[in-house]
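Figure 2 data, in text form.
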Amino acid sequence: MERRLIEVQGIVQGVGFRPFTKTLADRIGVTGYCMNMGTYVRIEAQGQKDKLDQLTQALKDEAPPLSYVASVAWRPMLTFESESGFAIRESAAAPDTGVLQMPPDAGICADCARELFDVQNRRYLHPLIACTNCGPRFTIIEGAPYDRQRTVMRAFPLCERCREEYENPSDRRFHAQPVCCLKCGPALFLLGKNGQRIASDDPIKYTRSILAKGGIAAVKGLGGYHLVCDALDDRAVQMLRERKGREAKPLAVMAPGLDTARKFCEISAEEEKLLTSPRRPIMLLKKKKGTNISNEIAYENPYLGLMLPSTGIQMLLHRYPDGGKEFPLLVMTSGNLSEEPICITEECAVEKLGSIADAILAHDRRIITRTDDSVARILSGKICVIRRARGITPLPVALPFDTGKAPDIFAAGAQTKNTWCLVRKAVAFIGPHIGDLDDLDALESYTNGVERFCRQTGVFPTAAAHDMHPDYLSTMFVQRFASRIAVQHHHAHMAAVMAENGLTGSSIGVIFDGMGLGSDGTLWGGEFLSGGYTGFERMGHINAITMYGGDRAAKEPWLSAAFWLRSIPGKAAEALAERIEGEEREKVEQLQLSGIGKYETSSFGRLFEAVSAMLGIRRENRYEGEAAMALEWAAGEAEGQPYDIILENNKDGFILDMRSAVSKIAEDIISGKPKAEISARFHETAAEAVLLGCLETRKRTRLSKAVLGGGVFQNARLLQAAGKKLASNGFDVFTASAVPSNDGGISLGQAAVAAARLSGS
């Protein structure tokens, strides 16, 4: 006989871990107890040694689906207890140095979905139905240990029947903190444009009637509000775009289930698995031709951003026993004005969304942490997260090295697609997607989110990592820290992919993105680096182009095209430049003569946009990256050989001169070659540039691990082509998956670099 003290660290609170442990102990035949203790689960178990070994192993191997077991540590105890069984004890706070690893919100499970439409079930049509396996988690937690009294649910005392379920170890809702019913749970209510209450006995029915008439509703979700309308109604979608100020950016849609989703999209087995998982992200899926979906949803885009319901409210909006219309597809876009943080309070919904929505469907369960929808896609059978938020945040990333005595670290992230990151003892927690830090509302959301997470977890970092750019709001935020580490933008991209993939030592980093401040003061974006977490060397890059007009080129790709073409001799380039510049030609020449907003950049992202403008696909970006994405779509299934690239060596490294390729592109455009063919050849050229740069770097460093990062590698065609070329030439290729390759992953890279430098790893 033996008695053990077992401590389980990870996401083990709020996911049914204690009921699971009791069931496991009863099955194996050991006595003792378990309890939430601070940030972990404490277990005392007594029995025969082989049975305790079985228990310890099963805690890892059979853990509940929403849990994440980071470690199971145990030690023998000297005393024995006289016990008749295994119990679950009340939680207790404890002084410890761990971090409360909060579970993400989970989409409605199959059991709750079935109960929702079961007329015999007491939770029939209960819009906030939840259980141990689904419902809000991260967005309602206030502190540790995770119990109902430390969530917003403490405002809703359990009725007698819910209390029986909550206290019954054999019930699916045993210790499910969001548990409630129509009698004791939060209640729905309606607000008008001006915030006045709308009297209605059935808020769902009222909201559905608005949607059926072609109207727009603001609906409270798990992590914030959505704006909702009928996705098959052109006028409704167009009105939503006009009111929200979202001219062209694709809108997310929601289908009630997988069968309906298949009517609109092609869905692979891997896509189905993620689409129906508890994460419930927006999935980028290939659109089927000939459907009746509004053309206003995603102009000329072969993909549709589609998700399945996360809550009972969303399911009931699609289908409800009111004799009204069933909606096979609803627009379910973020409840905000264009590029602002999503609303989480009724006051914000009235102020920001009152001019957009015809009614606001709300409830009185508060949202503690603002969390937008996650966005993901499947590439070559691998999950690629584009926006890391609801359903994923705040899942941890384990750093692949010992952080030793390094202090707790805060990483501030980038200016665009911002996330922040917190590190303690080699575990990194990435905060939810904030968006662009361009205004005070975004900065307030960022500041509040950071401070709240620190309070929730009890971690108050003393060191900070940030981008080198001095004007970023995230850089300004960290001035409050005495210890600060500046991390070069592209080094952070590289470190993020390395950390996620568990890489140590040195790698080749291929980082293609829009622009980031380089160590030499120029703006980088087409880089080949070598090194690891503590430092890097810039081995090479694509040729830099002189641009003018400051940030204008980011919104007006035709300007990038003009400056690229003006850097190239030849009649074709000159003729194409005249065609693109048109009536703006004099202004372009004035910019060059005056030197206003002059800068040097090696950005591959700007080159993609320039080629899009050259082909007449997109002259302007109505939303970030539109021109580059449209260039990818234009290639379709076309094939082509890469254009020539000239590799030049100098004392500072190598340069991949893309001007000969652009010159040939200009000739092909002037001669009338098909756009699809030119786009396909350019994508092959970009992939060839990746290979040439890696081959040259390997020749100089003997490294063979190639890390691909930066927003440009969200281009599926480029990522697949480059990966194939590298693999066939003996490189081990690593890409982003659970952490975005765009600037949403920058904070993880900053955190990894700072942790390595401060720990001497």
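Caption note: The longest strand covers residues 507-517.
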